[in-house]
Design goal:
five-stranded antiparallel sheet, disordered C terminus, elongated, 2 helices, 409 residues, mainly beta, five-stranded mixed sheet
Length: 409
């Protein structure tokens, strides 16, 4: 008479082992039959997987793995084995809860508050407080998978920042095979400053429509001889003379813009000096934001316009946004900040109810300049008598000093 043996136990594990998983991510459930009595119990099993409290298998196979190609909802899973030989089934496995959350979106931050000086290090951080196993991907100027830089950690370091490093950055994270990607972060603008004067842009705005002309000039430099206009897009740096514009002296002219002209522009001398860079966005959409290419000085007024490709709308009412939040709705299509402060720095765009939205542009704010001359000018404006008094006091002091000088002779 054959003895009676305990049924072998099924064990369910999840690969990869991180939790939670996210919508669309691939997950593999593995069912293993453990036998403590007879080695033959380990063979000829078929496997069945169950979901929730249902007694109907959602999947069955001769292989002990079940891959969920695109996780969608949270539930419990369990498995068991069946075969023709005795014992013909295993005990059910322990239930495993598959926690599924919405695809995450990382936050991109910088070690630098404000503009970065040429030659200084800048560290970008892609913050993602969600489980484990991530690698990080970094994009510049455009969200372009083919030009992404990959890092094993959540930081990306530019050891010595240059003008060409200025511009718009994004990050995202990925894990698994095939790689599952998070959403892209919001854009982060890196502004790089230099000691020389800025590039002159005409029309003087950060956004432009395709087919429009554009002029960029280094004539504003202290000595414009030997200066040239340079441009970077998708990690490639080139000169105006390389074919995307025509050169006259230190001026670069583009007769008909295309979206490929979106990027960072600056002036560079033969000795390697660089001007402050400017970010230019070219769109084939119908709406652009007329915003300044250079930083705005604290205390100055700032006026933004919503501009349109022909035919222009009869109703000019436009909404103006900063960092994604609505600031104002104006029937004139323009918005004015009467006195700019540092808190006004950010990403701006406008929206027309029929034409649509403009691209976003970063507006920088710099501190107001200060000089002794400006202080004296302010004193004269406030109280001319005070300035006269100071002059008389100086004369009196000099007059008193003269007898002492005579006695020493």
């Amino acid at each position: 008479m054959q003895g009676t043996f305990a049924l072998p136990t099924a064990t369910l594990t999840v690969e990869p082992r991180w939790s939670p998983v996210f919508t669309g991510e691939s997950v593999t459930l593995k069912c293993e039959i453990q036998s403590y009595s007879y080695w033959r119990y380990q063979y000829n099993w078929g496997y069945q997987w169950y979901k929730g409290s249902s007694r109907t298998a959602v999947y069955q196979s001769q292989r002990n793995t079940f891959t969920i190609r695109s996780a969608a909802d949270q539930d419990q899973y369990w498995c068991r084995g069946e075969r023709d030989n005795r014992p013909s089934s295993s005990r059910p496995s322990n239930p495993v809860t598959l926690t599924v959350k919405e695809k995450p979106k990382p936050e991109l931050t910088s070690s630098h508050k404000g503009a970065a000086q040429i030659g200084n290090p800048v560290v970008l951080y892609c913050e993602l407080d969600q489980s484990a196993g991530w690698r990080f991907y970094w994009s510049k100027h455009t969200q372009s998978p083919e030009n992404e830089i990959k890092t094993k950690t959540h930081s990306y370091t530019i050891s010595s920042v240059s003008v060409s490093d200025g511009g718009q950055y994004w990050c995202r994270a990925g894990r698994g095979n095939p790689v599952y990607y998070t959403h892209y972060s919001d854009a982060l603008w890196i502004n790089v400053t230099a000691v020389t004067d800025s590039l002159t842009v005409s029309p003087s705005r950060a956004q432009h429509l395709v087919t429009d002309p554009l002029s960029l000039s280094c004539d504003g430099q202290r000595d414009s001889t030997g200066w040239r206009v340079r441009y970077t897009h998708s990690e490639k740096v080139s000169d105006c003379s390389s074919g995307w514009g025509s050169v006259t002296g230190s001026t670069c002219s583009i007769s008909s813009l295309s979206t490929s002209h979106t990027g960072v522009y600056w002036c560079e001398s033969e000795s390697g000096e660089s001007s402050n860079p400017v970010n230019i966005t070219v769109t084939n959409g119908p709406v652009i934001l007329d915003s300044p290419v250079h930083p705005v000085t604290e205390g100055d007024p700032l006026t933004l316009h919503c501009l349109y490709r022909d035919p222009k709308p009869s109703d000019l009412t436009a909404e103006f946004y900063k960092d994604g939040s609505l600031l104002q709705t104006q029937t004139t299509g323009e918005m004015t900040i009467r006195t700019v402060s540092k808190s006004d720095e950010g990403l701006y765009h406008c929206r027309h109810p029929e034409k649509g939205e403009s691209p976003q542009s970063w507006i920088s704010v710099r501190g107001a300049s200060f000089s002794v001359f400006s202080l004296l000018s302010s004193l004269m404006a406030a109280s001319p008598y005070l300035l006269v008094s100071i002059v008389l006091m100086v004369k009196c002091c000099r007059a008193r000093a003269k007898p002492d000088e005579l006695n020493t002779v």
